Amino acid sequence: MNENKYQQAIDSFEPTLSEEQLQATVKKIVKERYEQADRNEVKKLLYGLIDLTSLNGMDTEEHIAAFTNGVNDFDGTDPTIPNVAAICVYPNMVKTVRDTLTVSSVKVASVSGCFPASQSFTEVKVAETALAVADGADEIDIVLNLGKFMSEEYQEVCDEIEEQKAACRNAHLKVIIESGALKNPELIRRASILSLYSGGDFIKTSTGKEYPGASLEAAYVMCRVIKEYHEKHGERRGIKFSGGIRTTEQALMYYCIVKEVLGDEWLTPELFRIGASSLAKNLLADIH
């Protein structure tokens, strides 16, 4: 295939709105939908969409085991509240989660590919992904190669995602585009399109480590790309928001965007996730 295929794929999607138009559109959606969303039923749904995350340099096997046991202990305490969707940790902690987790509905997720900077050899990223899957990861969160992307070396960007997708075997791949670093809506649109065409099962806003996290405007752009991809190819791909989403109010706003743009079919853990740690506690407090 020729080099132009990447640009052709990008050009086949609708252009994004301007920053001013995006802000106005997002504000309108939240204004119209928030009141109806602000219900315990929705908050309970959101709890079940959380990728409960521990990504700290001080993480130990003992800490991660206790972290996982918190999920085990929660299960069944309130039949009306689903457990979290996944537990997300560093690759070397996947086995600890897998050995400790007793709740079959909760997935084991791992960041990989030299998270969070994605600055290493492709072979190292592929190996890390394969090792995490071998240790029991159901889902892998990788980071788009921002350096190659900003240099418009799209083939290298896509080849790297495709190789990590292959290393996932049956595990799902989430591609983090670092929307807070890209900032520009057009760059967010392009990164989303390339990530989907390269095999990403989900596209994700942010690592929450080096750059600003999720924004409602980025969420809208990414959801529009997913919607259009589905219309073109009949395939549903997922969306994950992460980076700074801590309060119930914030989570409800992202819910409003997904419901408006993608519809009720996306309001499931199979297609919609929120990467967070403190959000779970805040949601439970507001529910009760």
Secondary structure elements and pairings:
Layout: H1 4-11, H2 19-37, H3 40-47, E1 50-53, H4 61-74, E2 86-89, H5 94-100, E3 107-111, H6 122-134, E4 139-143, H7 146-150, H8 154-168, E5 172-176, H9 179-182, H10 185-197, E6 202-204, H11 216-233, E7 238-242, H12 248-261, E8 272-276, H13 278-287
Helix pairs in contact: 2-11, 2-12, 3-13, 6-8, 10-11, 11-12
Structure characterization notes:
The chain is globular. Strands 1-2-3-4-5-6-7-8 form an 8-stranded parallel beta barrel, surrounded by 7 helices. It has helices spanning 4-11, 19-37, 40-47, 61-74, 94-100, 122-134, 146-150, 154-168, 179-182, 185-197, 216-233, 248-261, 278-287; strands at residues 50-53, 86-89, 107-111, 139-143, 172-176, 202-204, 238-242, 272-276. It has 288 residues and is an alpha/beta fold. Helix 6 links the parallel strand 3 (107-111) and strand 4 (139-143).
How would you concisely characterize the structure shown here?
By secondary structure, this protein is α/β, with parallel strands linked by helices. Helix content is about 50%, strand content about 10%. The mean pLDDT is about 95.
What is the H-and-E element order? HHHEHEHEHEHHEHHEHEHEH
Which bin fits the share of residues in helices?
A: 40-55%
Sheet-strand content, in percent, reads 5-15%
Low-confidence stretches: none
- Tell the overall outline: globular
Q: How many strand segments?
A: 8
Largest beta-sheet characterization: 8 strands, parallel, barrel
Q: Would you tell me the overall average pLDDT?
A: 96
Alpha-carbon distance between the two ends: 56 Å
- Output the number of helix runs: 13
Structural class: alpha/beta
Please compute the radius of gyration using only Cα atoms: 18 Å
Largest sheet: spatial strand order: 1-2-3-4-5-6-7-8
